[in-house]
């Protein structure tokens, strides 16, 4: 009984442990294969498409970054070439401005020499005016002395004649004494007057000589001298006759009668002399008035000329200040452009380095993506194998196999998490790459704005130079020089008239000719300056066209 039970137990165990029939295995394996392959096929295709999309995206980003980097390099090279050309143009403009400043300094020196010569001419005119006034004063003094002498002589002679007539009516003896006394008094008075006249004549002889040299047109003074000499001779004769003491009354009467005749003659001569003196005085006054008018006209011309010279000097100073300010502005703009160029070169180097680092990081990320995809493929294949093993081992249900399956599932989960982390890192890298591309776009925009700013600065410089040219043209330099030439010709005519009256103005005429030469040189210099400004404007227009 026990033996039959053991046999039955072995048979049951053999039945249980015996393999299934082939038909059952064949029927079961397609089901298992279907169970495994049906969920794995669509997942692998989606993941492969995703990986391919990421690879294409990374490749497109790398290509776009390289394209933008090459474009930025080309634009930076063009910008550097434009900056070098602008720096060369700025240096050329600075040289031209320096040449214009040198011409302005030369013009200022010429104007200074012209003003000094005008001051010398003014001092010469003042000296001539003082000499003419002094001559007028001396002439008036001589007229007063002669008039006083004539009045005294006439008064003494009239008193003597009156006394002689009164004494003739009285007594011959008393008449003789009276005539003798009167003649003595008359002789004394004449002697005193002659002494006073001699003193006055000695004092004023040199002044009259100087006045005669300065006023040669007044020839009536020579006739006056002859008349005065005749009067002096008559007075000397009268003195000699009085010293001889008339012996006879008849001779005294004859002398008195002859004296009366002489007095009448001298009176007529004195009247004619007075008339001549009045004519001479009128001529001197006319000459003096004409000289004063000429001097006043010359002074007014000199004042107007000095005002015009001052106006021109102020205009030159304003032009010089404007040119200096423009030069300083150009230097400041050049320095700022050089500094900005250095800054942009540094930023360009930084951008290039960042672009190179981004390209390297993109290559590294592509390598990482390939490694991740390979890991993903290996994980997918491992997962598929594990799924097949799991489906195969699921009917057995042993504990050890379940533990192995759980550990494999855990490893697969960890691999998926690591893969998800790699995907996140890849996304972050792509974001950084996009930010770098955006930064390159901003840098490109800033470079274009810098180029536009430099163009705007060049245009502003051109406008300032054009404004300066219009200001220098607006000064009407040619009109001012024409007015100066007309005024100088008028002054030359006036000075020629003054030269005929006063010989001392000959030297001033030489100075006037020198001033005319200075004005001619000033005109030439102004023409050269105008030509330089026109050439500068032409160069500026060429620079603007090139810019």
From TrEMBL:
Query: A single GO CC term, please?
Result: cytoplasm
Q: Which residues form a coiled coil?
A: 249-343
In its keyword annotation, does this UniProt entry include NADP? no
Region Disordered, as annotated, extends over 1-43
For this UniProt record, give its keywords in alphabetical order, as a comma-separated list.
Cell membrane, Coiled coil, Cytoplasm, Membrane, Phosphoprotein, Transmembrane, Transmembrane helix
Question: Where do transmembrane segments lie in this chain?
Answer: 51-69
Q: Where in the cell is it found?
A: Cell membrane; Cytoplasm
Q: What is its main location?
A: membrane
Any keyword Plastid?
no
Name it. Answer: Cytoskeleton associated protein 4
Q: What's the source species for this entry?
A: Lepisosteus oculatus
Give the lineage: Eukaryota, Metazoa, Chordata, Craniata, Vertebrata
